Amino acid sequence: MCRNIRILFNFDPPATDEEIRSAAMQYVRKVSGSTKPSKINEPAFEHAIDEITSTTRKLLESLTTNSPPKNREEEREKAKAKAIKRFGTVAAAN
């Protein structure tokens, strides 16, 4: 799995449209092997991103869990601590 795609399910507040679209874009980039498509492939690239965004939104809306929603800031801090333990430093996060 692409390391840049973040978990979007079960957060308070829920994932934004921008976060869902960013994950879709990362997926399309990974699958296509291209970060920026050629002019001729742009329509296909954008169409795929739109379709995956829509499907991801539907998936997130249909999932259920008994676990309480995670706090974004707490999860961000956990990830930083894990990175520091693993690498000795932490890179700037999105």
Distance between the termini: 18 Å
Return residue spans where pLDDT drops below 50 for at least 5 consecutive residues: none
How many extended strands? 2
Structural class designation: mainly alpha
Cross-sheet strand order for the largest sheet: 1-2
Mean pLDDT: 90
| Percentage beta strand | under 5%
Helical proportion? Answer: 55-70%
Which overall shape is indicated by the principal axes computed on the Cα atoms?
flat
Radius of gyration: 16 Å
Question: Main sheet, how many strands, which sense, barrel?
Answer: 2 strands, parallel
Count of DSSP-assigned helices:
3
Give me a quick take on this structure:
This protein is mainly alpha-helical. The chain is 56% helix and 4% strand.
Key terms:
94 residues; single chain; 2 strands; 3 helices; flat; two-stranded parallel sheet
Give the SSE layout.
Elements (H helix, E strand, L loop, with lengths): L10 E2 L4 H16 L9 H21 L7 E2 H16 L7
Parallel strand pairs: 1-2
Helix pairs in contact: 1-2
